[in-house]
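Researcher: Structure for this, please.
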Amino acid sequence: MQAPRTPEKLRLPSAPSCTIALTDSPTRRGKEEIQLVSEGLFLAWFTSFEHIGMQWCLQNSQQAFEKKAASRKSQAKLDSTATRRRQPVFAWREQYICDHGCHSTSTNSRRSSCGAYLRVSCMRETGIMKITLNNDHDSHNPAWIESINRNGLPHAMAEMVQEMVDEGLSWHTIRRRLRIDLAILQEVREHAHAAKGAVFSYPLTLRLTYKDIYNRKSKQTASGARRHSDILRSLEIWRDNLLEMGAVVEYMLPSENVPLVFIFLTPWQQELIEKLQPDVVCIDATHNTAFLTSGKTDKLYLTTILAKHLPAGKGVPLAFLVSMTLEHCPLARMLEILRQQLHFQPSVAVIDCSTAEALAIAHGWPGTSIWYCRYHLQQAVTRKAKEIVQKELRKAAVHDFLILSKVQHPAQWAARWMFMQHRWWNVNRTFLLYMERQWLSICPRWVEGYRPLGGP
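Model: Predicted structure, token format:
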């Protein structure tokens, strides 16, 4: 299915005036036909659907129709026994469907299984244009005010939004540019209230959503980042480009026993490390965001080392690792590169309770303290509490654990742990066993009182 087409791009007869038969109810035998005797009247009729939030997408084009006819003709010539086919009734024809007319499982998608369609055909002998309209929208009502944001953007507005995205404008800036006067909004609201929810004329900017900008920016980023259709070839091109820039790069192709590993630090990141020399960094990996193959079987993981940039008050990436595995070896190699080539090793690394990341830090940055992120720490305990603690006691179990993690002195922590044992011994001993096996041996990673510098 091609992109939505504007009414002006519909194929029309070259004659200055023509006869158009409009069938408004294709499911009934007695079809009411309306004669439109000019292109202007047809375009006015077609454009009226834009006022109620409708636009049509080309499904079967004239090019496909001509290709199919040529194939039949060539097949008839090759087959001497083929019966002579009659000439096609239509000189050309096209079919359009509603812009919601695609099956989608996503609840946020604008597309659904809408059965509305528009067929335009031109008779070969008479030159009359016939239009068949099925305006029965199964899953939505394009005239309903609550469905405004569910309708697609018109072609002209989509182009305007794309131009602003190409300029590098953010969602908030675009919204400010397209801000609507309050008087106009009040007029639309009153009109919809009078029509009991239906609205047939409203500013097209009301259709614009954050998802429209996000999708265009994502597509723009992906088209600029993908240097080749084959992702491995694309990474090789990136490796060559980064080396020309003076980046630190290590690239290993995937083999039978070796996963894909792509480590890189740009010149900007090298300068940032030398300038900031941060004492504390964060290490985190993204999951299920990229795949090596189109079948989404070979996952790719992006691991990033972040540090706080004090002038900006935000985190900045110091190094990147793309790999097919979450094992500790690729990450340990990246930390070795930072330590050996850039002479950088922080005092503290904050991670998300990952044993693989902790092992990588022990190998790549020996002597660096490991702290667990409090948010991920709470997530891990909450997930386990759902498995082993009664529903009515889960919040209390997580609460007691967090209080234990915030104790500021080891002696106080020992007293607090004895109190927790006494409290939970007769209530849920499984939770206490989980605490002893999972957390007591690594107290410096999650208890603030065991950290020399205090917790973040």
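Researcher: Any notable elements?
Model: The longest helix spans residues 62-78. The chain has four domains: 1-142, 143-225, 231-372, 385-450.
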